[in-house]
C-alpha cells in the first residue's frame, strides 16, 4: 500500500495484492508458461479526477534476480470488485483472456473520480517459474507510473496529478 498526498493534504492510495495462481498455462499452440494474477486498487481522495493511462511498452522483460526468466505483463480490461477478491485468480477467467490476448499490447485507461476507487488486474506470464517469491506493485515516482516485478522496475505511464508525493 502506498499513500500519496498533494500540497493541501489530499490523498491518493494505491493498494497492491499478493499473487494468485502460480499455475501453468498452455497457449493454443502448445507453449507452456507459468502465470500469476495480481490486482491493484486506486482510491482517489483528492478533489480532482485521477486520469490513469497505463501501458507496458515492451513485449517481454527479464527478471534480474532470476536470469533466463522472461515475462510478459497483461492488463485485462475487467474491473476488480470486492466480491472477486476471494475467488480463484481473483475471479479473472485467465485462460479465456490469454487465449484471446496473448499477442496483444496491454493498455489501460481509466478516470477515477474524486472520492471513488477502481480496481484492475495485472497478469504476469513467465517462460518458467521464478527463484523465490513473486511480488509486484504499482507506484508513483516523480509524477510517473512504475510497475515493480520483484527487482525489475518498469515505467508504464503518466498521471495528471503531478504534485503527489509519497506520504512519509
Notes on the structure:
It is a single chain. With 168 residues, the protein is mostly beta strands. It is 5% helix and 50% strand. The chain is built from one helix and 14 strands. The strands form two sheets. Strands 1, 2, 3, 4, 6, 7, 8, 10 and 14 form a nine-stranded antiparallel β-sheet that branches. Strand 11 and strand 12 form a beta hairpin. The longest helix has 8 residues. It is globular.
Instruction: Supply the number of helical segments.
Output: 1
The main β sheet shows up as: 9 strands, antiparallel
- From the N-terminal CA to the C-terminal CA, the straight-line distance is 13 Å
The beta-strand count equals: 14
Strand content: over 45%
**What series of H and E elements makes up the topology?**
EEEEEEEEHEEEEEE
Uncertain residue segments: none
> In percent, how helical is the residue content?
under 10%
Mean pLDDT: 92
